[in-house]
Design a protein that fits this description.
Radius of gyration: 18 Å
Order of helices and strands: EEEHEHEHEHHHHEHEH
Number of strands: 8
Number of domains: 1
Helix content: 25-40%
CATH architecture: 3-Layer(aba) Sandwich
Strand order of the largest sheet: 1-2-4-3-5-6-7-8
Mean pLDDT: 95
Length: 287
């Protein structure tokens, strides 16, 4: 049985890197944050942001460390960047990463049936796509011979400032004259029509047959990269489709506030812990 998850726990953690998939371009690495204790612990895969063109598994390290210290086996993975391969390459990397982590979880004192995902910005977009389409043939492109029966379904999704509508984010980047963000989208979505096909908001609007795991979105109310109104529209559509979803606005916060230490970051991490506990049935909702 899974060890009851206590969001208030403070455990020592062990951290190491391991290759999780060897690609023709490079080795894709994972950073493991393992609580030191008997376990088994709930399992969380972290997917970094970077507008599909930058960053790696270390981008969310301060958050990953604190979540692991509360008693979760957290693993952050690299994904291929747009310069290496456009959509849906990084989505396929995460789909494989979920299955791979499920296969490794027990050896690292984790409980694979508790698997959740955490994605930031473009990583949020990628995790949303995987959560909603875990069996998509393009996303399951990489076989896992040692565990062929595992799939990429997840128990829940946590998304910080996710690009839930990449087409809307592209238009906002043009409005703000942010050339690098415009170019990042154009590099990732090739051919261009995939910005609409691989678009969580448009998937909901098209009423595709999808999976809708519980989701928690954390959004800065001063974010002029992914506008709050765009996030609210996604939340309404997800809920209308039958999904359980929570949205929390963080006053005075921009797109990447969680990388900066402070009260709002502390609040965000505590809310993520509480959400995980609720999904695992180990804590009752407050209020």
């Amino acid at each position: 049985m899974t060890r009851p998850y206590d969001p208030a726990a403070q455990l020592e953690i062990k951290v190491w890197d391991v290759e999780y998939r060897r690609d023709s371009v490079r080795s894709l690495m994972a950073r493991v944050y393992q609580p030191q204790g008997q376990g088994p612990f709930p399992v969380l895969l972290d997917v970094h942001g970077g507008a599909w063109n930058a960053q790696d598994r270390t981008a969310n390290a301060p958050v990953d460390e604190r979540l692991a210290a509360s008693g979760a086996l957290v693993v952050a993975i690299d994904v291929r960047l747009a310069s290496e391969a456009p959509y849906p390459a990084s989505v396929a990397d995460v789909n494989y990463g979920i299955r791979w982590l499920k296969s490794k979880a027990q050896a690292w004192r984790g409980s694979p049936e508790t698997m959740g995902v955490l994605g930031s910005s473009s990583g949020g977009h990628i995790t949303q796509l995987n959560a909603m389409r875990p069996h998509d043939e393009r996303y399951i492109a990489h076989p896992l011979p040692e565990a062929p029966d595992l799939d990429a379904t997840v128990t829940y999704v946590v998304a910080r400032s996710p690009i839930s509508d990449p087409a809307a984010r592209y238009e906002q980047a043009k409005t703000m004259q942010r050339t690098s963000l415009v170019e990042n989208s154009e590099a990732y979505f090739q051919p261009w029509e995939t910005i609409f096909e691989g678009n969580p908001q448009h998937i909901l609007d098209r009423q595709e047959s999808i999976v809708l795991p519980p989701m928690f979105i954390l959004q800065g109310d001063m974010d002029d990269n992914v506008l709050p109104v765009v996030q609210e529209r996604f939340v309404a559509a997800y809920r209308s489709a039958g999904g359980e979803i929570e949205l929390e606005m963080f006053p005075g916060c921009d797109h990447r506030w969680i990388v900066n230490p402070g009260p709002q970051t502390d609040r965000a991490i505590e809310m993520i812990k509480a959400f995980i506990a609720r999904q695992l049935g180990t804590q009752q909702p407050v209020g």
